[in-house]
Amino acid sequence: MKNRWRVLENKIFVRWLSIVSIITMILLLVFFLTLLISSWPAIKANGFGFLWGKTWDPVANHFGMLPFLVGTLITSFLSLLISAPFSIAAALFLGEYYPKGLVPNIFRNVIELLAAIPSVVYGFWGLYTVAPLVSKIEMKLHMPAPGVGIFTASIVLSIMLIPYSVSLIRQVISMTPTSLKEAAYALGSTRAEVITKVIIPTNISGISAGFLLSLGRALGETMAVTILIGNSPEIPHNIFSPSYTMASVIANEFTEAVGNIYLSTLIEVGLLLFVVTTIINIIGRMIIKKVSY
Amino acid sequence: MEGTILRTENLRVSFGDNLVVKGINMEIGEKKVTAFMGPSGCGKTTILRAINRLHELTPEAKVEGKIFLHSENINEMEAMTVRRRVGMVFQRPNPFPTMSIYENVISGFTLNGIKLKTDEKNHIVEDALKKVALWDEVKDHLKKRATSLSGGQQQRLCLARAVAMKPEVILLDEPTSALDPLSTAKIEDLLYELKGNYTLIIVTHNMQQAARISDMTAFFYLGELLEYDDTKKVFTNPKNEKTQNYITGRFG
Amino acid sequence: MTPYDIQGLQGRRVKDRIFTSLVWGLTFSCLAVVFIILFYIFEKGIGSLNWAIFSQNPKPVGENGGGMLNAIVGSLMVVSIAAILAIPVGVSVGIYLAENRGRKLSDRIALAVDVLQGIPSIVIGIVIYVWIVKPTGKFSSYSGSIALAIMMLPPIIKNTEETLILIPTTLKEASLALGASYFRTTMKVMLPAGIGGIFSGCIIGIARIAGEVAPLLFTAFGNPALNFNILKPVDTIPKVIFTYASSPYDDWHRIAWGGSVILVSFIILLNTIIKIFESRWKVQF
Ligand SMILES: Nc1ncnc2c1ncn2[C@@H]1O[C@H](COP(=O)(O)OP(=O)(O)OP(=O)(O)O)[C@@H](O)[C@H]1O
Ligand SMILES: [Mg+2]
Question: What is the homologous superfamily of the domain C51-281 according to CATH?
Answer without folding.
Answer: MetI-like (1.10.3720.10)
